[in-house]
Amino acid sequence: MLCQTILLPLTILVTLVIPIIQQILTTVCNWVSSVISTVISVVSQVCNSLPWPLSTICGWVTQLITVVQTVWNWVCNTVITTIISIITYILNMIIYVVRVVCIIITIIISLPGLLLCLIGLRLPKRISLCIKVITDDKGQSQVTPAAIQASIDLMTMVYKQCNITVNVSSIERIAAPQLLTSTDDSFWGLFSWWHSWFSSHACGCCGQVTAFFIDKIQGSSDGLTYWGDNWCRIDSTANTDPTIMAHEVGHLCNLWHVSDNTDLMFPSSGPPTNPRNHLTASQCCIMGASTFVTAGLPGR
Questions:
Q1: CA 179 – CA 204 distance, rounded (Å)
Q2: For the chain, which terminus, N or C, has the lower number of CB atoms within 10 Å?
Q3: In DSSP terms, which residues pair with 184 in a beta bridge?
Q4: Which of 246, 252, 251, 248 lies closest to 277, judged by CA?
């Protein structure tokens, strides 16, 4: 509860307040720039009707106003945008650190429940999932709707083995062509601007995970999670492998890679005749202790 109390205002600030402020500033900037353009047009017409040397002096005034407009546009489009981006980045890094601390605290607090689970007492639990598909400007994505549904079905089936119900709260498409193929699987991506973008556009606050589908992750990965985040990325490999989303969400829920190639947490998908589609009892208990997995039946 303490973690949620700390995270909620920070998340609201990043996902709601800052975008509203940015939209207001953009509107004001565009309005002022439009007014300046109108003034330049009027002054230019006046200048054309004046005799020399007044027309020349008037022309200098017009040039000065044009310079003012250029400076204004630069401040709006570069300076203010950069400042907002830096503030958003810093807040997202603070949220990330707080979330990591919360996860560690949750693990410690959940140790008694984890022990009870390991001896066989496994209560019904659920996980809330939000899906966002990144598209180009025309709303197109290389990831098919059928692949997304197959990923949901596979995750539902595997998590059911742990008595965990998967609730998909929404499926949304977001036009962000600059992110379709530009993100990578390096550790340093954690400190990138695109990491801040995904963090800002993830759903919910503390008890919900977001799966972003993009066209391609640069590197050798077809899905990637930074432990401590509340979101993961999956690329168009999901069209042929429905296990990636469930695997990456498993990482969010504190599961690590295993050597069993039929286990969901095996590093790569197996052949169709031997897919990674199960979890062990101990893995189920670890997932149940995650901050993203809550007690209760579906819809409660």
A1: 21
A2: N
A3: 218
A4: 246
